[in-house]
Amino acid sequence: MKEPIIYFENYLLRPVQIEDANDMYEYGSDLETVKFLSWGPYMDVTEAHGSIKQFFLKRPQRGLPIGYAIVDLKLNKMIGTIDFHTIISDGVAEIGFCLNKAYWKKGIMTKALHQILQVGFYYHGFKKIVIGHANQNTGSKRVIEKNKFIFDYVDNEKYYNRFTGQNEPSSWYYLTREDFIKNEF
Ligand SMILES: CC(C)(COP(=O)(O)OP(=O)(O)OC[C@H]1O[C@@H](n2cnc3c(N)ncnc32)[C@H](O)[C@@H]1OP(=O)(O)O)[C@@H](O)C(=O)NCCC(=O)NCCS
Questions:
Q1: 98 lines ligand 1 (CB under 6 A)
Q2: What is the CATH number of the domain that holds 163?
Q3: 1 within domain boundaries
Q4: Which ligand 1 atom is at minimum distance from the Cα of 143?
Q5: Within a domain: 44
Q6: Is 22 within the bounds of a domain?
Q7: Is the CB–ligand 1 distance for residue 143 below 6 Å?
Q8: Residues of the domain holding 167
Q9: Å from CA of 108 to ligand 1 middle
Q10: Sign of CA dihedral 131, 97, 95, 184
């Protein structure tokens, strides 16, 4: 059985595909968007193409879940990604996300994360999902908190800021399947 395709409001969550390269380049070439990420800014659309081919499309081969694209249904435009990019240990996955700046602060990632947590816990059967953010990344912090992740610890070494050349503090959270289900009702 394939991972589900999900509709919420005017948006669609479906697997990332090679045709998303232009849209991924649009937000991946923006410095503010990639400020806290480990990749980008893309200088050319071929980099987005390469990252889709090399990372997203190879996920199943590597035993990882597919990466989801967030699509604006009105414009049929890919506006971001959300995915379980790392399996940390048996039943424990780490999730990450990125959204086109034109769509920030509309509640989209908070809702997308809720949908993908359902996929993680109910479809993949993960027992725990973890997530982290650079302490300065207020938007990411809020999305995580609004999805009722439990704060775990601050790490001063794990996050390397490529732009300052420093290790900077990042905060780490987890959510168990039991707590997710409890929060649902
Ligand atoms: C972080 C990110 C995913 C947030 O997505 P979003 O769809 O704008 O988030 P939401 O609209 O669901 O916002 C949730 C809350 O965070 C707040 N928020 C979002 N971005 C914010 C920002 N840059 N600064 C301060 N608050 C912010 C919203 O106002 C909202 O707050 P409220 O509900 O208390 O009013 C988006 O800014 C992004 O893609 N950033 C670049 C990539 C990135 O940093 N990814 C995370 C790596 S850990």
A1: yes
A2: 3.40.630.30
A3: no
A4: 14
A5: yes
A6: yes
A7: yes
A8: 6-184
A9: 9
A10: positive
Contacts of 180 (CB under 8 A, 6+ apart): 117, 121, 148
Number of structural domains, the chain?
1
The single-letter code of the amino acid at 135 is N
Angle at 133 between CA 130 and CA 137, to 5 degrees: 150
Whole-Å CA distances, 57 to 39, 53, 61, 68, 130: 17, 5, 8, 11, 23
Instruction: Give the predicted TM-score (pTM) of the model.
Output: 0.97
pLDDT digit of tens for each residue in the chain (185 aa)? 688 999 999 999 999 999 999 999 999 999 999 999 999 999 999 999 999 999 999 999 999 999 999 999 999 999 999 999 999 999 999 999 999 999 999 999 999 999 999 999 999 999 999 999 999 999 999 999 999 999 999 999 999 999 999 999 999 999 999 999 999 88
16 in a structural domain: yes
Ligand 1 atom 28 nearest Cα: 105
**pLDDT reported for residue 2:** 84
- Cross-strand partners of 95: 84
Instruction: Quote the ligand 1 centre to 67 CA distance (angstroms).
Output: 20
